Amino acid sequence: MVDTFSIESRLLIREFDEDRDVKVVGKLEKNCEIGTKKGVSIFTNMMGDPLSRIRFYPLHVMLVAELLESKELVGVVRGCIKSMRTPSESLLKIGCILGLRVSPTHRRKGIGLKLVNSVEEWMLRNGAEYAFLATEKNNDASINLFTNKCKYVSLSSLVIFVHPIISFPAKHIPKDIKIEKVNMEQAISLYRRTLRAKELYPLDMDSILKEKLSLGTWVSYYKDEGCRLNLQRNMVESVDEDIITNEITSSWIIFSIWNTCEAYRLQLKKSQPLRFLHTTLNHARDKIFPCLRMSVSESLCTPFGFLFLYGLHGEGENLGELMESIWRFTSRLGESLKDCRVVITELGFGDALVNHVPLTASMSCIDDIWYTKRISSHSDENDDELLMKRQIGNVFVDPRDF
């Protein structure tokens, strides 16, 4: 039985101090054992910046758990807050929990629970109505903590698709398909319309598109189907104006690309505890490593980045070839970036495009689950739109969360 009183009396939860905690947190995260202790493992190389995953949010925090007597850091958690919208036009302020870690020698003592409670309190103080997190389907420890001890409920099931860049070598994009880049104003206008099809999406899409890690937005369509994209305009005059005219192509897809290579890298090591890019990837070593077609010796000293496809939205019946062309296009772009090895995207089970991802022999699929709970008081739980729906199938996956 955990002596909760004892650990709480000996534990200080405080904010991360960049001046004194950088090296210690880096060491802590490298020593966190998740999953197997043998074979090839994967972990995140933060490139000396533990805040790299949350700096893109105006409201963010990183908390550490420190033993009062020894001053040893034994746990860490990150949190951020963003505004989301539902199809019914409801506005929700949601806090996201990212990167919960507890030192292997101090587990099962209530430290993880204390960190979660503390980051929830920070979210509540900053106006969040819900707390939210994602975890891989097979992560029993994480699911037990959040569902049994913290009372989170399942919100959505998603799939992470992982594809090595080298899987699309020489074959070109079909000549009848055009992939055209749109400017920032056009991208914002397009997403203003297409995001309405999502059951949950962020309000600050323009901020995401303008981040330095976002490489741009493209539209893929068939040349001979009469696509009429008003791409000649440099500006979109009205916020409600659609840059796709009535003579729309029968099949088209919009997508954006996020480049993690400049913020953090993945790294594979042999006979080390499993590290991970994101809580959803804690069993990803068996799926990602074979895809990379690298030798173990090569992986020991070569951190690598990846491109993340986000904002995918497709319309029309003939989307299969368009999706394959998007993966080829992104892979080709990744080849031009130093140390970029993988293309990744994540789609909800209710997203129409989930059935059109090119499932080649090199593609790996990882089941992801989103959980949530209301942290602010609510007078009528039966009127809680998010929790009453329980399973939402078509959601926007924020590249900042990944």
From TrEMBL:
InterPro entries reported in the protein's UniProt record: Acyl_CoA_acyltransferase, GNAT_dom, Plant_NAT
Domain N-acetyltransferase: 11-234
Sequence intervals crossing the membrane: none
One Pfam short name: Acetyltransf_1
Gene3D superfamilies the UniProt entry points to: 3.40.630.30
An annotated GO BP: auxin-activated signaling pathway
Listed GO MF terms: acyltransferase activity, transferring groups other than amino-acyl groups
Superkingdom assignment: Eukaryota
PANTHER family assigned to the protein according to its UniProt record, in alphabetical order: ACYL-COA N-ACYLTRANSFERASES (NAT) SUPERFAMILY PROTEIN, N-ACETYLTRANSFERASE HLS1-LIKE-RELATED
The protein's name in its UniProt record: N-acetyltransferase domain-containing protein
Gene symbol of the encoding locus: LOC100814448
